User: Which sequence fits this backbone?
């Protein structure tokens, strides 16, 4: 066993190529100079994906002769500055130091490597300005993205006539990009400057670039206010991202003529306006993503390309029906978001032909009619529409559903008992603000993946099911390595977001939805006591049972709910004392037990006292020093206000007599 793998390698004096990527190589102590390999044989070195540090590698590396041509040390733990001695490796043509923790500036000596064709320093913590690169005339690939570079973008980049790939995204550059930055880039195919908010563009109106790009990514730059005319000359585009770029304009018809090869188009979060033309026949690729969201497009919804995989037209001003969508056949859509528009009409059997659809978001419109029946649908957002009547059995065929939001509609009837047996993968279920009545079916307790249950603001009656302890996702801690968490993350990552009532306010959860565990049964007609079994849900972070007709005593085992951040039991008929275990809920940010018939002493706890006396008010037989003190303070405040009013009246009266 070699305790120092460098010592073993140093014995291979004829070694020419060394690939040891992703081998879990540990950092070793630096070798003394006498043990360095001064061989001229090694040409290619790949130690990427290990745990190597700078103190171990760089001294060893620079002992080689200048014959070393390829170095890949990406995805390690290299720290500190890039040594200036790297400029002595004059034969170097390939250098990748991506995904490390390197700091400081790029050494000027790096610009002297005339044979260097590939340079990747991305995902580090490098600062300063990019040095002059005119001598690196062989560069074809330059990745400096995801660092902290600032200042101007060196115009010497424009002289790199062989450059094909340029990525300066996610930095802090402050510059006006002009034609001189690109004057000699005849071979450029890939250009990314995204997320440099202080970069703007100033090209002449008739500028004809020397290149034909396949990928343009300028998200978060100051591209606007007009659509860049030079993009109309690019006829080989596969990727175009000009989202969040300050454009206030219409989409030119010429754009759609350039789209035949596009597989990714993102113009979201701008101020594009106007009516969209029919662009469905313009795209020829089979894997296509189109994002036109968060703009001001209006008019009827255009025909959409049936070969698209993901379509997002949300947060615009489209109006009218979607019958033109219903006429499409053999669609490849997997993700369709039309939420937050002015669309209306009945869905009927609109999506019967979209058999691959997995994410359907039609929220915040005025749709009505039948629910879609799609076998592979995993996420359904229909909140804030005009759906009425009972939950139709058409939804019963959607057995893959993991996310259902039907809140803020006009649905009525009983909650179907088949929900618990059909949607076995369900993670999120919201029927909030409808007109459901009847009892909560006990079959819901079969939903072992359920993490958010919201039946608030309905007319549901009966008792809280005792079997809620079978909602095992609310019992178990999140296991980040488990298949369950992997499943939840796949459902929520990138595509999923939800509006959840949290601490009496609506919050949008995007990246952390899989961590929310909540039960909200408030504002119904529930009766009976709180079943003791509910205290088995030890990872629950929010419980709202307020505004019902619940009674009995609070569960003595409530102390088990140690993860609770929000507990609202107000406006019920609970009696008896407050369990001492409430004082052990040290994660509580909001507690409301007001408007009940609780009695006795409030448990003494510094944390409870910080929650305020309003959490316990209107419980006539409840006693606590800080509550009494609060009442006294309120009475004193009222007296002070009355005295001020009397003094003001007398002052005004006295003033009148003086005159």
Assistant:
């Amino acid at each position: 066993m070699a305790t120092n793998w460098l010592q073993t390698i140093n014995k291979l004096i004829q070694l020419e190529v060394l690939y040891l990527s992703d081998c879990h190589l540990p950092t070793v102590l630096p070798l003394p100079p006498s043990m360095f390999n001064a061989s001229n044989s090694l040409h290619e070195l790949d130690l990427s994906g290990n745990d190597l540090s700078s103190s171990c590698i760089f001294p060893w590396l620079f002992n080689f002769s200048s014959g070393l041509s390829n170095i890949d040390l990406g995805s390690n733990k290299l720290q500190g500055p890039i040594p200036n001695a790297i400029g002595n490796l004059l034969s170097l043509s390939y250098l990748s130091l991506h995904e490390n923790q390197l700091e400081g500036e790029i050494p000027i000596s790096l610009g002297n490597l005339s044979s260097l064709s590939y340079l990747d320093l991305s995902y580090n913590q490098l600062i300063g300005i990019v040095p002059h690169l005119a001598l690196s005339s062989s560069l074809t690939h330059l990745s400096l993205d995801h660092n902290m570079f600032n200042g101007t973008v060196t115009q010497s980049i424009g002289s790199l006539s062989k450059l094909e790939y340029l990525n300066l995204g996610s930095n802090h550059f402050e510059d006006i990009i002009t034609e001189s930055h690109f004057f000699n880039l005849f071979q450029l195919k890939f250009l990314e400057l995204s997320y440099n908010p202080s970069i703007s563009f100033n090209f002449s109106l008739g500028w004809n670039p020397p290149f034909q790009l396949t990928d343009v990514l300028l998200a978060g730059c100051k591209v606007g206010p007009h659509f860049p005319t030079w993009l109309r000359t690019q006829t080989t585009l596969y990727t175009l991202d000009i989202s969040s770029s300050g454009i206030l304009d219409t989409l030119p018809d010429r754009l759609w003529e350039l789209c035949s090869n596009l597989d990714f188009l993102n113009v979201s979060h701008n101020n594009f306006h106007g009516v969209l033309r029919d662009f469905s026949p313009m795209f020829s690729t089979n894997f296509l993503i189109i994002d036109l969201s968060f703009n001001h497009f209006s008019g009827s919804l255009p025909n959409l390309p049936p070969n698209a995989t993901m379509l997002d037209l949300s947060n615009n001003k489209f109006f009218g029906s979607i019958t033109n969508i219903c006429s499409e056949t053999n669609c490849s859509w997997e993700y369709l978001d039309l939420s937050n528009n002015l669309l209306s009409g009945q869905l009927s059997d609109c999506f019967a032909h979209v058999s691959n659809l997995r994410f359907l978001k039609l929220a915040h419109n005025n749709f009505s009619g039948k629910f879609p029946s799609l076998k592979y649908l995993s996420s359904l957002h229909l909140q804030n529409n005009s759906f009425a009547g009972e939950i139709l059995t058409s939804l019963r065929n959607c057995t893959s559903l993991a996310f259902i939001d039907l809140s803020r509609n006009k649905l009525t009837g009983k909650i179907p008992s088949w929900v618990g047996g059909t949607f076995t993968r369900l993670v999120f279920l919201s029927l909030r603000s409808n007109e459901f009545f009847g009892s909560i079916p006990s079959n819901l307790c079969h939903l072992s993946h359920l993490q958010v249950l919201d039946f608030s603001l309905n007319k549901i009656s009966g008792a809280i099911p005792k079997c809620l302890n079978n909602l095992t996702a609310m019992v178990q801690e999140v296991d980040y390595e488990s298949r369950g968490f992997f499943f939840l993350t796949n459902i929520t990552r990138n595509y999923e977001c939800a509006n959840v009532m949290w601490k009496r306010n609506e919050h949008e959860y995007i990246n952390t939805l899989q961590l929310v565990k909540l039960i909200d049964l408030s504002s119904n007609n529930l009766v009976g006591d709180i079943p003791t079994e509910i205290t088995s849900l030890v990872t629950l972070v929010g419980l709202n049972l307020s505004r019902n007709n619940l009674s009995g005593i609070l569960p003595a085992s409530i102390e088990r709910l140690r993860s609770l951040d929000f507990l609202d039991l107000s406006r019920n008929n609970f009696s008896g004392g407050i369990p001492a275990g409430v004082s052990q809920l040290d994660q509580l940010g909001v507690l409301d037990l007001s408007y009940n018939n609780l009695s006795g002493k409030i448990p003494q706890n510094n944390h409870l006292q910080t929650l305020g006396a309003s959490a316990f008010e209107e419980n006539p037989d409840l006693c606590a020093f800080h509550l009494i003190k609060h009442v006294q303070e309120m009475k004193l405040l009222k007296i002070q206000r009355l005295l001020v009013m009397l003094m003001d009246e007398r002052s005004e009266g006295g003033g009148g007599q003086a005159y």
Observations:
- The first strand starts at residue 17 and ends at 19.
- The radius of gyration is 32 Å.
- Confidence is low (pLDDT under 50) at residues 480-495, 655-659.
- The helical segments are 5-10, 54-61, 253-257, 323-326, 419-422, 483-492, 606-609, 625-658.
